[in-house]
Design a protein that fits this description.
The chain is of the alpha/beta class and 266 residues long. It has helices at residues 21-32, 44-56, 71-85, 108-136, 157-177, 195-205, 211-224, 234-245; strands at residues 12-16, 36-41, 61-65, 90-93, 139-144, 182-189, 256-259. The chain has one domain (12-191, 233-259): Rossmann fold (3-Layer(aba) Sandwich). Helix 4 (108-136) packs parallel to helix 5. The structure holds nicotinamide-adenine-dinucleotide. This is SDR family NAD(P)-dependent oxidoreductase.
Length: 266
């Protein structure tokens, strides 16, 4: 497959959470549109698998092991990507974990872990990518938030606090850096059956008599809440990331765009 032309031709992208789900789908989609990709994830084997997929497409990728909750790792993932490919045009700050619990049942340790990865990790990813973009006078940052940061979803307190924070932080970063050529937007996806979501349902159903059946039933109920009649796919989200990363979105900044089959329209 030729990757010379396309909507991201000549661009260098860094994707976090690139070992799985939206991150892997975006890595493949960005490659098909001409980008070269730094594939960062705490799961090095998975990041390497994504990089192999890209190589098999005729693209170029560098796998990077990085925990986005660590400033040193975030600095290294930006430096490695820019060092390998000479610049940094796009950051898809997408890595995240599930965070189940109500205001009563959430432990302080869970709160801290989820906020460190899902909120602080998005900030740290930008903190070390931005200097490259500022030097170039151009860049696009796409943060993965969630419908859980916009509306009540139920018993995902630390997760929703982090995702609401990502939306607020996206707007602040857009305010600060758009005058210097860097657009910053957030995507708010609805349910897509990635390992993160399966883990959420399994954790919630753990106390039930038949946890497998309870998780399946809860997922069925969830699907019925989507006006479009299905949950999403990883490509539904990767397509939005691609659009926001590309110059087609050159007048869009500070936005939190839902990709949710109408879930938040109800
Ligand atoms: P996923 O589990 O398939 O992928 C998440 C990836 O993030 C994994 O590869 C994991 O190893 C990585 N990761 C976890 N902690 C990390 C860390 N500390 N440092 C670096 N990488 C880390 O899940 P996904 O659904 O593709 O999730 C991607 C993003 O989308 C997350 O931010 C998630 O909160 C968000 N999201 C998912 C859904 C959904 O329904 N799947 C909906 C809304 C938002």
């Amino acid at each position: 497959m030729s990757t010379n032309g396309g909507r991201l031709a000549g661009k260098v992208a860094l994707i976090t959470g690139a070992a799985s789900g939206f991150g892997r789908a975006a890595a493949v989609r960005f490659t098909a549109e001409g980008a070269v990709v730094g594939c960062a994830d705490v799961d090095l084997d998975g990041a390497e698998e994504t990089a192999t997929l890209i190589t098999e497409m005729g693209g170029r990728a560098v796998p990077i092991q990085a925990d986005v909750a660590s400033g040193a790792d975030c600095e290294r993932m930006a430096d490695t990507t820019a060092g390998e490919f000479g610049r940094l045009d796009v950051l898809f700050a997408n890595a995240g974990v599930a965070g189940v619990g109500s205001a009563v049942s959430t432990s302080e340790a869970d709160w801290q872990r989820v906020l460190d990865i899902n909120l602080k990790g998005v900030w740290l990813s930008a903190k070390y990518a931005l200097p490259y973009m500022l030097e170039q006078g151009a860049g696009s940052i796409v943060n993965t938030a969630s419908v859980g940061g916009l509306v009540g979803v139920g018993e995902i307190l630390p997760y929703s606090a982090a995702k609401g924070g990502v939306i607020a932080m996206t707007k602040q970063m857009a305010f600060d850096f758009s005058p210097r050529g860097i657009r910053v937007n957030a995507i708010c996806p609805g349910t897509v059956l990635t390992p993160l979501v399966t883990a959420t349902y399994e954790e919630r159903a753990a106390g039930e008599v038949d946890p497998g059946a309870a998780a399946d039933e809860a997922l069925q109920r969830m699907t019925q809440k989507y006006p479009i009649g299905r949950v999403g796919t990883t490509d539904d989200v990767a397509n939005m990331a691609l659009f926001l990363a590309s110059d087609e979105a050159q007048w869009i900044t500070g936005s939190a765009l839902t990709v949710d089959g109408g879930y938040t329209a109800l």
